[in-house]
Each structure stands twice: as structure tokens, then as C-alpha cells.
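FORM 7B: Structural annotation worksheet

SECTION A. Query
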Amino acid sequence: MPVFSPVLGRLVATLGDETISFTHLAALIEKDTLLAGHLLRLVNSAIYSRGREVTSVPRAISILGVTRLRNFAVSLLVARMWSRVRLPQSFSLARFNLHGVATAIAADLLAQRIPLEYYEGAFAAGLLHDVGKALVAVSLPEEYDLLARSGAWDAGMEEEVLGVTHAELSRQVLEHWRLPPPICQAAGEHHTPPSGPPSLAHIIHAANSFANATSAATEAGAPMDPAAFLAPLGIQNQCESIQSSFAAEFDTLRQFF
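SECTION B. Predicted structure
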């Protein structure tokens, strides 16, 4: 497995910390010059540009806000982490990263609309929900190819081929990286959320399907109606608004992956 970088670990550790200062966050990001450069590129892009070039990380943070900045930084660092791992040719790292980012954006948008414990973990959980698939590709490439060719990433086929599901592997990886328990649990249950009130697992389950139905990072075959995946959460009437926000954020971030 790839190593969780110190900067990435510290960024994840700040999830939910609303008191973190711009200065502290800027100092953390400035330790990684490549990350800082991408941040400045993002804030000077058309969607955020205010007509005057931004050249400092603290100023960039003040424009983007702590949450959006942290989400972007975590996405880039996770993508870079996997780029350093030897993966089989059949594994598309770009598609894997785009699907993770798409699910993360959708999860964050859904978590803003539903009362939820640990809503601040929605983006990270969406981004990392499928790391089990990457782990299979790294360590069991033949089995990965079999599952990928058949399109059979379902619990029954996975259990038969691997003896475990990719969702359970995702949970174990995130626990190994010492991510917060709600994120680990949501990754492990993202195909089988428990009964009861909406949890982070329900959000990731819906966001994963919504991303597949809405974005170019789809893993599904025929297009499906994204509103259908919002119905179990009771927010299908907000589908148009969610789709609009999703499209704007995804189109902005995809250029980095």
C-alpha cells in the first residue's frame, strides 16, 4: 500500500476543526511546493478569478475558504500518492481519480442538505471509498483483470474471486491509515448502508451512484436518472440544484486529474 504522506495526514486531521487559522493551513500547504502551485492555479482559474492574479497561499485560502481548499488539497495528494504505485496497465489511474473526486463532490453536496453526524468527513469518504479496488489491482492484478473485464464488482463475485469485497478492503486500508472511524465505516458500507436514519454510509452510497449517473467518470453502462439515487434521502426535488453545483465543481477540478 502507498504511504499516507505527513501533509495529507495533517490535513485530514483538521477535518471538522472550524477554528483552524488560515496561517496554520497556509504553512502546512506551503511545505509542498507542487501542491501550493496547483492551489494558486486553481484560484486563478476562471471560476474563482476576480480579475487580479493571486500569488500567495494565504490569499488563495481567503478566497476559496478552508473547506474547499482542504478538499482540493486532499484530492491532489491522494492522486499523487497512487501515481507512485506500480499499477497494472488495465488499471486507469485517471478514471479512478476522477471517479473518486466526482463521488467526493457529490457526497459533500448531499451532506450539506441532510442532517448528518460527521458531515465534514463526506468529501474524504467519497474520495477514498474505492481504495480497495486499487489495492486489488496492485496486489492481485490477475483477479483485478477478471473482475474488471466482467464488470462484476459486486459482493457475490468478489467473495468468490477474492474472498472479500472491495468495500471491506477499503475500510481496512483506511483504518490502517488511521482515518476517522466514520470515514472507515462509510467506505466499508458504501454498497450496503445499514437500515435506519441517514448516515455517512448512505451519503457515499447515493453519491457513488449519482456520480456514475452524472459525470464522465462513470463506472456504469447505460445512463440513469440521478434523481433516483436521491429519493432514498428524500431530496430528489433538489436534483437540478445539486447537478448544477456538481457540474461546476467537477469541471473545475477535473483538469488537475
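SECTION C. Observations
The chain has a mean pLDDT of 87. Residues 93-111 form the longest helix (19 residues).

SECTION D. Sign-off
Analyst initials: ____
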